[in-house]
């Protein structure tokens, strides 16, 4: 069961069954295994407050007789003094276990291993003393543990592959402990286990290669494995010895046995082992960075098996050495993978700065750098979105655009899925043949997405991992979990891709971070190019017209974006003066380039003598035939300097403002055609008269329309600004400052043509 599914632990005494075993408070079982005796005593007087009820089997005194007595009375003066000296000498008792003492009992002296640790009980601590009598030969003591396993460690260090390392570790632990079977058991990311090596009695069936579901070791059990690295069950069929009293008098809580070597075992786990035919069991935790990644699992079948504490300590040391060796090997492999990924990443970043190609073309085009996104992250295909299109490498669905909408809804900039059909069914339906995705979101609707197909996998389980559901379905008389059948059960896993590794996620996260710098550079390049284009197309100077004042201003959008605004003014062949303002949709280099083409086309038609409406009609034809994705709003006025007559034509642009000689300002109600590029083919013509002292104002929508100001309010603000100017010269800069909305994201362009008074 995944850790996220666990809830509050069961209350003391609440029955444990198949449905709630993952909530069993196994750190406070209230009992111990009977191959030893537990005493919880006060310090410094060493008076017994808790004792396991089997104490009479070892010390010849009942639990009521032991409670309240001190260790000197219970174990004898020599053993008690030896224990006191040990407590004064060593701070961390768990690092100096066991202390071998000779207990004075009614049956004579008995040599025992005293395993010590302290436990918090409310605001105080108790010393827990666990006594295991000596059984059989005692080959190791604490000082010579390393010597006992030195040869084994050397053999571990001499291995050249993980498989060899696992095999050597299994053999060495079996030789050390004498168990019938020793397995190296490795977890995957979801804590399903796999037997990757075993050393066993010749007549036993092999478990090598079998898998076991995560539910076999519930989360709270895994947490204890991370704290207590070795665990012995000397006799699976034991009768638990209760701790007396069961609850602390001051706190009302049971004694915490997290670090107890005698701690009793969940009855569900004992049944599980019994169903496997196991009579005794021991496990050694394999850790990486304090987290459980595997176990050395030891099973005995011929009867109870009680390796002395010294042997277990030596096996634990061997397990720690194995963990260190595995961590070193894993870190070495990860380092090599990271170095290879970094080398690929550098080549990709070099390619991404190719200004002659779009980002997508640069990343998947196998440029001179030789880099490939599929080399960075192996996959069936990869797609790079950007600039309104996409570029691909490998096998990619014909229409990958649903990925963009899905990625936009993800809370993180890097997202992955390994089973689309169950995790994202709507996306899976839109991407046939794709089982998993790894996606990186970039600014401005850019993204990179790797795609993997289905990786059909046959998993050999040690029994049906789904049999808890079978037990529920078939009733109480069927009890399959803890499983009674451990026959090999093969499951075909479909609908999933090969998992995305932590290294692959790190690589794409690093790629995203570095590409943000590239995108910033590309934006600067595009901005610089667009500004160069735009400056080159705006008039260097405005024409001088006798009796008239002509002023124009262009203010780029905030943030340095370059848009498609332009203005123009020049003399026509018939003596009139043409004044123009246009606005190409969009921003950036493409908008600036389109603006240049339309500006030059319109200027050419006007200079050949076309009237404003006719020039707009032909410019619309040019846009339709050569610039299919571009459109622009334009206003063109041909002004007779002698009379003040104005011939005007408007294509989708804001209406001009007519200034009166008395300071009045009026928006003109003129007919407006559709924008250039989608025009009607017959733009209308309108005539105005500029009186002496009056004028004409042309402007782009950036001056009057913004996110926080609607068009109507912006027009009223513009009219008001010119009315406040009154008769006489107009300060165009004041008008721009007064009318431009700070929240505007568009260019601002204005042209004012003022006729001098008579």
Protein model, in words:
This protein is an alpha+beta fold. Helix content is 32%, strand content 26%. It contains 20 helices and 30 strands. The strands form 6 sheets. Strands 1-11-3-2-6-5-4 form a 7-stranded antiparallel beta sheet. The chain has a 6-stranded antiparallel beta sheet with strand order 9-8-7-13-12-10. A 5-stranded antiparallel beta sheet has the order 15-14-18-17-16, sandwiched between helices. It is elongated, with a radius of gyration of 42 Å.
- End-to-end C-alpha gap: 93 Å
Rg result: 42 Å
Helix content: 25-40%
| Mean pLDDT rating | 81
Q: Report the biggest beta sheet as strand number plus sense, adding barrel if it closes.
A: 7 strands, antiparallel
What is the secondary structure topology, with strand pairs?
Elements: E1 31-32, E2 37-41, E3 48-52, H1 55-59, H2 63-66, H3 71-75, H4 77-89, E4 99-105, E5 108-121, E6 124-133, H5 145-157, H6 162-177, E7 181-187, E8 193-200, E9 211-212, H7 219-227, E10 230-233, E11 241-244, H8 267-275, E12 280-288, E13 291-300, H9 309-352, H10 359-364, H11 373-376, E14 381-386, E15 389-394, H12 402-408, E16 414-417, H13 420-423, H14 425-430, E17 436-442, E18 446-452, E19 457-462, H15 467-474, E20 488-493, H16 502-537, E21 548-555, E22 563-571, E23 577-587, H17 589-607, H18 612-626, E24 632-639, E25 645-651, E26 657-659, E27 665-667, E28 686-689, E29 695-699, H19 711-725, H20 732-739, E30 748-755
Antiparallel strand pairs: 1-11, 2-3, 2-6, 3-11, 4-5, 5-6, 7-8, 7-13, 8-9, 10-12, 12-13, 14-15, 14-18, 16-17, 17-18, 19-20, 21-30, 22-23, 23-24, 24-25, 25-28, 26-27, 26-29, 29-30
Helix pairs in contact: 5-6, 5-9, 6-9, 9-16, 16-17, 17-18
